Amino acid sequence: MNKKNFTSKIKLYDVTLREGSQAEGVYFSIKDKLKIIHLLDEIGMDYIEGGWPGTNPKDTDLYNIMKGEKLDNAVLVAFGMTRRVDNKVEDDPFLEALIKTEVEHVNIFAKGWDFHVREVLKITLEQNLELVYDSIQYLKRYIPNVSLGIEHFFDGYKANPEYIVRLIKVAEDAGAIWVGAVDTNGGCLPDEVYRILTETRKISKLVRAVHIHQDSGLAIAATMKAIECGADILHGTINGIGERCGITDFCTLIPNLQFKMGINCISGVQVKRLREIAYIVAECGGFDVYKYSPYVGESAFSHKGGIHVDAVLKNPMTYNHIVPEWVGNKYTTTVSELSGKANIFYWASRYGINIDKNDLRIVNLLNYIKKQERKGLRFDEADASRFILFKYFIDNYKPNIKVKDFSLSINKEWRGDLTHLEEEKEIIDMNIFLRLIINKEIEEISVICKTNPFMILSRIVKEIVGKYYKDLVDYIKIIGFKIQKSDYFYEHSDSQRVSLVLKAVDLSLNETYCTIGISYDIYSAFLKAFIDVFEYKILKNNGENKRSEV
After folding, report:
1. Are 281 and 308 found together in one domain?
2. pLDDT tens per residue, range 195-228
3. 179 falls within a domain
4. Cα-flanking dihedrals φ and ψ of residue 6, to 5°?
5. Sign of dihedral through CA atoms 91, 92, 97, 101?
6. How many other C-beta atoms can be found within 10 angstroms of the C-beta atom of residue 197?
7. Residue 311 belongs to a domain
8. 326 and 281, same domain (yes or no)
9. Which structural domain range is residue 415 located in?
10. pLDDT tens, 502-521?
11. Cβ–Cβ under 8 Å, residues 377 and 520
């Protein structure tokens, strides 16, 4: 694809706050939406849909708050629909809600597939054309710019191309500034998108925008293909969130345009903020950035294999398709059974440990990691436990906390009908004994309880550690854990190892980190990971402690 083929500037039309809100599990408050609008404006979006006023109080309130405010780069757009068939334009509440926003641009949608017109709207094709014409012409009296998105544009064209052409012509006659081709169910292949857009743009250059869904996994490819035949207004969302499988992901599309096609939609400084924006939007919306997302994901430039790591350390471009920093990301690696000495040397350098590549300690640590991973102890997620491990093997660090003895017995008694015809009552008694050596001192505690063993273990460990590191304990909070079984069995028995990854946060620094424990029972694994939570912070807060022995 050659840059000289593009005669006009590509414009980015962001629908994160409208289409993205339709994604399952995603929720934006008004405060979130206002924050995101200004962030999207800062990174150079040309158009931003804030929502659908009139359908819910939150979106209506948003446009009231934004009334009269001018953005630096973007145009704030209100989204809506054509009038209902039983309403006159002047009496339609949704059109009235759009007018009340007082924005400069509204984007309304209409049905384009004759199948939908007949089966969903239950009206004639001629009536649908009237809805489009009346709505655009009426809105133009109050709002300077009105665009039309045609739902199921490509399916509609394949079923009845003449009708799609008539819709485009009606929109043009009514005064629409452009028409958007929407692949609503995400079922079209990129070549189909190209063919249909090419054919319709020969009839009318008003067809400029594309809104492609991800249901076939081809939204980005189809959007890029649409550019070839003249589409210059591209819809997308941050992180690709949207109805069902989502839509075109701007976090991937924008770097593709910039670095692969030579189309500079936004500045280099703005592109560098893509990863930052991806994580802010995810935090606001209550979801996680997919760690394997291109460009902005945590693993986008992470290398695991020893051969890869060795090559990248010699020249980053040997296995990276772009410089990670261009999108605000960074190169990283992990340590695992696939690692080589280069992986160990990389992390030793990151941890400030000076060591020669051929030092025997690197080999010893590498062999230990490979042996432990076979048993299910994986350090790729457990960054804090990995740090402790490196300090112990390479930097002669001696832990401050050691579990000397631990036992947990659970006595269960059921009272009720064992055939489940009546409600049964479960009675649980737990006996927990824990002996720790901490800063050379022996501390032990024994409790009998009837509640969550993880909660009790957390409490008694905090109680003991708090005697020596009170300030540290007050700020540590566990925010989740993940359990995974290993296929490694103890000798010839049926005992199977269980690994547990703990996610903790230091509230004083707002630092999140993970530890791992592995054992033949889940509680011992939890205890080991929980001890590492504190060991890591002691190590980070106090520096190296090579003299303490346990």
Report:
1. no
2. 999 999 999 999 999 999 999 999 999 999 999 9
3. yes
4. -100, 115
5. negative
6. 25
7. yes
8. no
9. 401-542
10. 999 999 888 899 999 888 88
11. no
